[in-house]
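[Discussion] Sanity-checking designs against the backbone

I'm trying to build intuition for which residues belong where. Below is a structure token string of 171 positions. I'd appreciate it if someone posts a full sequence so I can compare it with mine line by line.
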């Protein structure tokens, strides 16, 4: 993205001027962790640095080891679906705005998620997962995702994964 800006403008960008991938791509896809990155870059409209920081926090929260010997893990890293779901909801809540349901500075073509125009029977919705029910120990880093700076409002952790608004990157 930095190189694209330099080629277009002929100068190095300031941090806030570096274009976001969602400004250049109509479709961003991935599977597995690539799907998480696609959602962060496309649906949540994050810049690359914020996406990298969020990804590291999410992986630390989701992939944890319960078995250690002198602080060194001796079994494979455990993946917990409930922790992944919690991490995704936290990321969506942290990086969406209640009214706009996106991270795009409230441009004019935003439709309220409560309006009848934005509702669709074919829209993808998140559902609570019952696939993995785990008990948390006192050592579990469930609160390991750091809280964002104090904001007056947070987004909806159950926001739609598919953004049906016009001129939005599809994931």
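Best answer:
Here's mine. Compare freely.
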């Amino acid at each position: 993205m930095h190189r694209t800006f330099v080629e277009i403008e002929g100068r190095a960008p300031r941090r806030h001027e570096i274009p976001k991938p969602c400004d250049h791509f109509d479709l961003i896809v991935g599977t597995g962790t690539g799907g998480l990155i696609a959602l962060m870059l496309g649906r949540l409209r994050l810049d690359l640095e914020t996406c990298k920081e969020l990804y590291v926090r999410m992986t630390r929260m989701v992939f944890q080891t319960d078995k250690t010997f002198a602080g060194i893990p001796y079994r494979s890293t455990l993946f917990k679906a409930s922790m992944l779901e919690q991490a995704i909801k936290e990321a969506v809540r942290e990086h969406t705005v209640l009214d706009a349901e996106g991270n795009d500075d409230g441009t004019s073509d935003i439709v309220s998620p409560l309006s009848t125009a934005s509702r669709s029977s074919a829209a993808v919705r998140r559902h609570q997962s019952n696939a993995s029910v785990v008990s948390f120990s006192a050592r579990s880093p469930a609160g390991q995702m750091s809280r964002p700076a104090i904001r007056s409002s947070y987004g909806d952790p159950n926001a739609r994964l598919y953004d049906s608004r016009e001129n939005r990157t599809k994931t």
